[in-house]
Amino acid sequence: MDVDGAVSPDEQRELSRRIVETGCRYAVCFGPTSGRWDDSIDMVSVMDGIDGVPRDLVMTSWHDDEPLEETVDFFHEHMLIVGDGDDGRWTPERYLVLVLGGTPGREREVVDAVRARFARRRLPPLWVLASLAAVLVAVGWFLATPHGYEAWCLSLDELQPRVEPVADALEAFREERGGYPGALAELVEGDLLDELPELDVPRGASDVFPLTYERAPDGSFFVLRFGAMYSTGVFPEAVERFYISDTDAWDTRSYPPTLEELVAARARRTSDEVPDSPAPPAERDR
């Protein structure tokens, strides 16, 4: 239960990165510090996106004031995602229950609750690891198995060709006028586009997020965004497709980087590239 803050921020970041890099596709975090673990795992994906590291989406949820039984119910139900299984649903191949801190009795309570809830169907291999002192109780691992996210990406692929001309028009605007516009309407006013695209709700989605445009404060790059809302079988999931001009790359995430995070990442990268000033020569012995 993160006894007296026994897990340092560095330890939390390192464990979160290991969870993501090992192939976790859904993390269910339980306990009084679960919100911090949810944010920490999400931030791994956000920073990978900023740095251009390809990574599958990791969905997360936190349960800081819910009983263990309700959280285990959520864990059980949320792992049953609409798919192409015999019953129309898809389930992960393996799970990991990770108990950090507490007592052996609490560890047993968690494992027994998970096993009892999954008793109505075959439970995939289950591992328990007790270490450190925090709360990260249930982690579902989607290891190299397709699930609904891939279908969502395909549906956004259908909308992307309607947005790509906007990116081209923004670059043409910069070539003509020396900088990106303050708003997309200037592209139509400048006869670079006939109209801005209206996006329809894509296949499998319940709603669509219209195209938005953001320009960096120094005008060095822009971000185009659009997306949609999808059903996961329990709660809706917002998924965003975005384009960053200075990387000339499209990406798709549920937790995309904000403009402020992108600007900060570029500032850090610039500072890392600046060579240190040479140390003054040591004074000669006299």
What labels describe this entry?
286 residues; alpha+beta; Rossmann fold; 2 domains; 7 helices; 37% helix; elongated
What does this structure look like?
The chain has 286 residues and is α+β, with helices and mostly antiparallel strands. It folds into 2 domains: 3-146, Rossmann fold; 149-267. The chain is built from 7 helices and 11 strands. It has a 5-stranded mixed β-sheet with strand order 2-1-7-5-6, with helices on both faces. It has a 4-stranded antiparallel β-sheet with strand order 8-9-10-11, covered by helices on one side. Strands 3-4 form a two-stranded antiparallel ribbon. A hairpin with a 4-residue loop joins strand 10 and strand 11. Helix 1 (9-21) crosses helix 2 and helix 3 (68-78) packs across helix 4. The model is unreliable at 1-5, 80-90 and 122-147 (pLDDT under 50).
- Total helical elements: 7
Provide the low-confidence segments as ranges: 1-5, 80-90, 122-147
Structural domain tally: 2
The Cα radius of gyration reads: 23 Å
**Cα shape:** elongated
Q: Might you state the CATH topology name of the largest domain? A: Rossmann fold
CATH class of the largest domain: Alpha Beta
User: How many β-strand runs?
Assistant: 11
Question: Helicity level, as a percent range?
Answer: 25-40%
CATH architecture of the largest domain: 3-Layer(aba) Sandwich
Mean pLDDT: 76
- Which percent band covers the strand fraction? 15-25%
Order of helices and strands: HEHEHEEEHEEHHEEEEH
Strand order of the largest sheet: 2-1-7-5-6
| Coarse structural class | alpha+beta
N→C terminal distance: 62 Å
Major beta-sheet overview:
5 strands, mixed
